[in-house]
Amino acid sequence: MCLISIVIPNYNYGRFADRFFSSLAAQTFSLADVQILFVDDGSTDDSMEQAVKWSGRLECASFEILTPARSGRPGPVRNYGLERARGEYLCCLDPDDTFHPEFLESCLDVLRRNSGGHIVYTDYLEKSSENSREVFLPEFKPVYLRTQNVIPSATVFHRKVWDSGARYPANTAYEDWDFWIQCVLGGFRFRHISGVRYTYERHEAGFTGLAEQEDGRAKAQIVLNNPEFFHPTVVCWAHDFFRGRPYAPAFSRGRIPSPEDVVKVLKLFE
């Protein structure tokens, strides 16, 4: 057992390795009680060489390099690492992002103070080749997840969440969103830390681009995966979306329709 396990799902992100692992090495929280699990999804670049290099540089409790069969989806890759995690606290960090020095310390401080929270998230800086912006997230309310995902992928959560059976699904490209809904249904509480604690890199090769291409299908699948969380009208929308009904469009990107949204469209076809 160690204090925290960090799962790093990777596919052809070797070019980001030095920046990413340097940000881990610079954490104000000591890595001496940290298990690192680098899970590679069949990379064809120098990712494995980079992982081996950094496994010898980071002064952590353990650095494990795992190579499951290729899945092509981040959800199963994260699950594979989490199944082998030994930490009291867990997190999945994408290797194309960078983490500010106080990220781990601030998240663990909230969880270890027995504040009643099980999942901790922070504000972040979003960067792309064109621009950058600071993203300040709201204090969590479960109702938010019925229409949009307000929780970033870079969170730290208590082992209880994983042990409850929550898993990242493979059948939706918005696997994080689905995972958070499972957490809400499991009775787990979210805590927000104000202030930018990491940098999220937006680029064409990232899984965000894939998710946006599959937007409608990904959202409808979240609803069907968790029908008890959504209004029956929205569940009907999800079924009809997969049936290709014209009155069940994808709606705007990154947004699951509300019951009111669905009714408005239905009225256009009366």
- Beta percentage is 15-25%
Number of strands: 9
The helix/strand series, from N terminus to C terminus, equals EHEHEHEEHEEEHHEHHHH
Quick one: overall form? globular
Q: What is the terminal-to-terminal distance?
A: 60 Å
Number of helices: 10
Oligomeric status: single chain
Can you tell me the residue ranges where pLDDT is under 50 for at least 5 consecutive residues? none
Radius of gyration: 19 Å
Q: Considering DSSP H and I runs of 4 or more, what fraction of the residues is helical?
A: 25-40%
Mean pLDDT level:
95
- Report the sheet with the most strands, covering strand number, pairing sense and barrel closure: 9 strands, mixed
Global structural class: alpha/beta
